[in-house]
Structures are given as structure tokens and as C-alpha cells.
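[worker-b] picked up task from shared queue
[worker-b] task type: protein-ligand structure
[worker-b] ligand name resolved to adenosine-5'-diphosphate; SMILES cross-checked against name lookup, match
[worker-b] sequence length check passed
[worker-b] input payload:
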Amino acid sequence: MTAPLDDTSILPLELTDVSFAAGGNRLIKDVTLRFEPGLKTVMIGPNGAGKSLFLRLCHGLLQPTQGSIRWQQETGADRHQAMVFQRPVMLRRSVAANIDYALKLRQISRRDRGDIIDRVLHQTGLRRLADQPARVLSIGEQQKLALARAWALEPQVLFLDEPTASLDPAAIHSVEEIIAAIHDAGTRIIMTTHDLGQARRIADEVLFINRGRILEAAPADRFFNAPENDLAQAFLRGELLW
Ligand SMILES: Nc1ncnc2c1ncn2[C@@H]1O[C@H](COP(=O)(O)OP(=O)(O)O)[C@@H](O)[C@H]1O
Ligand SMILES: [Mg+2]
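[worker-b] inference finished, payload out:
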């Protein structure tokens, strides 16, 4: 198993009046919200709305220029979260070695790493590719490897930024299944997509973002059946594309 850390939950994650500006533009505006443990949250919104910036802020890759982003348990919060990006970045080594490297960075002992690698390769359907160079995999397989590598760390929270944006339908289906399995195993999911079908399949809770502002945050049922915000309604009708 993963190195025993502590059982304290780093959640909730609390954003208070968060803004992010670059080049004189406010790109994320006045976000106040709280991520409780448990659910799958999907952020949707048009291209350029600020979805990637928002996730990077939450994951700590960017610092807000105003406001605060706090985990309930700040100590060790870095170790309890992981992120998967739209385009997987692989090391020039085997599939198994890519996972091994991530575990080594977290100081998991060599003895434990082998079992964890076997387990996540099995769980993501990649076992037969264990010894292949990661860079020769298809994009879909690479994205599964990115998920396996993140899952190996047993994060309390997993951020995923449009994880299926460049995949074909079969790969999208497998990636969605893996995300569901990671969630079932106890990881909080916070992801973005511009694919409404995917949001309907995955979300328990929806955040709708447009031009850097979160215009609606609602349980998925309510959001899809009776969105309150005008622009969210337009987005659901396919009329809001930028
Ligand atoms: N580092 C940056 N500096 C300036 N502008 C940026 C930076 N990163 C993103 N942007 C701009 O911020 C807006 C939101 O980008 P992004 O979060 O990538 O949108 P989304 O992921 O919803 O498509 C876009 O207009 C983008 O061009
Ligand atoms: Mg993006």
C-alpha cells in the first residue's frame, strides 16, 4: 500500500473571493465556493472561459492574485492531490517505469512500488503494455497511463482537465470508466470538460463558468433540467461557443 500518511482529510477546499489576473486582464473573477468531500464535480463552459486556469489555481500550480484558496488540512495537502492534463506528458521509458517514477518521487519504498504498479496497471487495463515504451502508446493508452500514474498515488482529490478532449469514442468510454472506478475507490473528482454529454454522464454537481465567472453551481439533475442562469441555458442549447 501507499506510504501511510495520516487519515486526515484535506477537504473541504475553500475558495474565497478568488481572482486571477495576467497581462492586465482578470481571467478568473471573484470565485467563492467550497468543495466538500465525496462528489464528482464537473466544470463546464465554453473555450477560453477559464476552466484550465481554475483547476491550476485549485491544484496550486498558480497563485491567485486576489483572495485565498485553502485546504482544511494544509499540511501535506500537496501529497494528497494529483492532476491529469488534457495531453498526457510521458517520460521516455516504459509504462511501468513511468508509474514507478511517480511513486519514487513520493518516496514510496521500492518494495511497495511493484505491487502498486501491478494493481493500477490491472485496474486500468494496461497490464499487457507494462514493458512498452510509454511514448509509442496511442493517445488513449497514454491517457490511461496518466490516470494509472495518478491513481497509484491514492490521492484524496484528483483534478482532471478535459481528460478526453483528444480521444476517440472508445477511449473516451474507457477513460470515463476509470474515472468512475477511481471515485468509487474513494477519491474526490474535480474535472473540466466542454463535452456536455460527458458532464451528464459523470457529474454529481456542475459548475458553469463563462468569461472567468462561475455563473451557476448546482446539483447535476437541477442544472440539466432547470438551469437558472441565462447563459447556462444558452450553453445547454449549444448557442454559447466562446
Ligand atoms: N498565463 C496566461 N496569461 C494570459 N492569459 C492567459 C494565461 N493563461 C490563460 N490565459 C487566457 O485566459 C483565458 C482562459 O483560459 P483557459 O483557462 O485556458 O480557458 P479554458 O480552459 O476554459 O478553455 C483565455 O482567454 C486564455 O487565453
Ligand atoms: Mg482548458
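[worker-b] attaching auto-annotations
[worker-b] The first helix runs from residue 51 to 59.
[worker-b] releasing lock
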